[in-house]
Amino acid sequence: MSREGLGLPRGIGQRDYGAMASTATTSDGSFGGFSPTEFISLSESIAANTIFVKQSWQFLEKANRTLGTAKDNQSLRDKIDDIQTGTNQRIATTTKDLQRLTVVVRGGDKQQKLQVEKLTSDFKQVVQFYSKSQQSIATKMKQVFLVNASQTDDLAMDTGAGTATGLPGTAEQQQELLKQKQLQQSLQFEQDMLLEREQRFREIESNVLDVNHIMRELSNITTQQSEVIDTIENSIGRTVDNVESGAEELVKAAEYQNRYRRKVLILLIVAVILGLVVTGIIVSKLKS
Questions:
Q1: How far apart are CA 111 and CA 90, in angstroms?
Q2: What protein family is recorded (predicted)?
Q3: Which residues is 31 bridged to in the sheet?
Q4: In terms of pTM, does the model score above 0.85?
Q5: What is the pLDDT of residues 36-49, one digit of tens each?
Q6: What sign has the CA pseudo-torsion 220, 225, 226, 228?
Q7: Is the domain covering 36-153+180-249 a CATH 1.20.58.70 domain?
Q8: For the chain, which residues make up each domain, given as ranges?
Q9: Which of helix, strand or coil describes residue 8?
Q10: Are 48 and 122 in contact (CB under 8 A)?
Q11: How many angstroms from the chain centroid is the CA of residue 174?
Q12: How far is CA 216 from CA 103, 189, 224, 258, 284, in A?
């Protein structure tokens, strides 16, 4: 089914924003340094996927209001399944991209780290909204399916009750055979319906994203980012302290230098005075 048929934007539906395969890693699996190109690519991918998940959430909200009404049909349910399948895959891929971006940005500056933190926060929020819509629409689809199945059961029983004519034997034998046949048909039909419902419920539940696992991973990413930013803040704080300490030392050094200069100046003045006195004594003796 085309993305245009799902009501999603053409550009987002066609472009693949999966994990970049060109990431340079070292032998231990860690990144070999900060790559501006990779940082930009991953950031754009995550931002686009966040928009995609948001649009999927909005579609599910609209579809949830349509289920069980006169506009409810199989085409709508196919779209719901397609949307959930594609979006679940996109969420899993984006979570991995965020994990990688968190490692890549360790070599970047504070502004880039704050940008990654915002990307993670926005994505985490929209995934929570999407997950709630998924659970709500799964419950609604189960309820609608049970109502339709019950109506089908009643119709089948009514149809079976009206097909017992032309059986051989007495009226009592015909009635007994009819009851047995109806019982067999009813048991077989109920068994088939139970299997169908179980299969259908499994399909509905399989589309519900394991959001708990995703949220744990996103929380770990957020914790790592906070630790990195705290480290930056601490480094900046230490730098400020060092600068202030250095400034104080410079002030003290300037004071010491001024004191030294005053001492030298005083000594020079004393020396000059002593020189003048000695010179005056010598001149006086020579004149006498």
A1: 26
A2: Belongs to the syntaxin family.
A3: 25
A4: no
A5: 999 999 999 999 99
A6: positive
A7: yes
A8: 36-153+180-249
A9: coil
A10: no
A11: 67
A12: 17, 44, 12, 62, 101
